[in-house]
Amino acid sequence: MRIVLIPCGHTEWADEGRLLGRVELPLTAAGQQQCAQWAEQLKALGIRKIVHAPDELATRTAEALARLLAVPTKATDDLLEVDLGLWTGLTEAQLKSRYASAHRELGEAPLNVNPPAGEALRVAADRLGECLRKMRRKNGNTTLGVVLRPLTFALAQCTLHGGEFAEMWPLALAADEPVIIECPENEDPAA
C-alpha cells in the first residue's frame, strides 16, 4: 500500500510561524495554489481516496485536491490535529521562551510532552497509529491520500517509518510538501 501524507494548505498563521493546533483557519489563496500544484504532482500516483480530519482547513485542502484528482473524500475524527491547548497560536520562539523544558523535550523525546490544557503527544500518536492501521487493513493495496495538520503529519511520518519519533518536531515545522510512504505488503498493519 502507498500512503501519501499531504499537509494542509497555506494559512495566514503559516506566514507568522504560529502553531496551528486545532484552531479553525481558512485556506488562503496561496493554499489553493498549493493544492493545484500538489494535484499535478500527485496525479501519476493513482490516489483512490483522500481522508482527512473534519476541521475546516483539512476539509478545504482535501476537497480542493479531490476535485482536481477526481476522487472521493472522507472525514475521520481520529485524524484531528494534536490539541495544543495553551500553545495554540504561539511561534516557536515564544514556545521556547515560555516553555523551555517542554521545547527541549520536543527535540529529545517528543512523546513525553503534554501541552498545558492540551493533548499528550503519546495519546495523539496512539490515536493516529490505530487510525493508520485501520486504514491500511481496510484499503488493502490502494493508494490513499491523507490530509493532516503539521503535528499529525509529523506523527504519521514517524509512525509509518517504524515508530522513531526523535525527528517529529523538525518534521512538523517543515510540513509543507506531500510525502509518499510505501508500506510493505508483508508488514502486518495491526502490529
What labels would you give this structure?
single chain; 191 residues; Rossmann fold; 8 helices; globular
Helices and strands in order:
Elements: E1 2-7, H1 12-16, H2 29-42, E2 47-52, H3 56-69, E3 73-75, H4 92-98, H5 100-108, H6 121-139, E4 143-148, H7 150-160, H8 168-173, E5 179-182
Parallel strand pairs: 1-4, 2-3, 2-4
Antiparallel strand pairs: 1-5
Helix pairs in contact: 2-3, 4-5, 6-7
CATH class: Alpha Beta
Secondary-structure element string? EHHEHEHHHEHHE
Number of strands: 5
Sheet having the most strands: 5 strands, mixed
CATH superfamily: Phosphoglycerate mutase-like
> What is the tally of helical segments?
8
Class based on secondary structure composition and strand pairing: alpha/beta
Report Rg: 16 Å
The termini sit apart by 15 Å
pLDDT < 50 runs, ≥5 residues: none
Number of structural units classed as domains = 1
Q: What percent of residues are in strands?
A: 5-15%
- Could you say what the CATH architecture is? 3-Layer(aba) Sandwich
Strand order of the largest sheet: 3-2-4-1-5
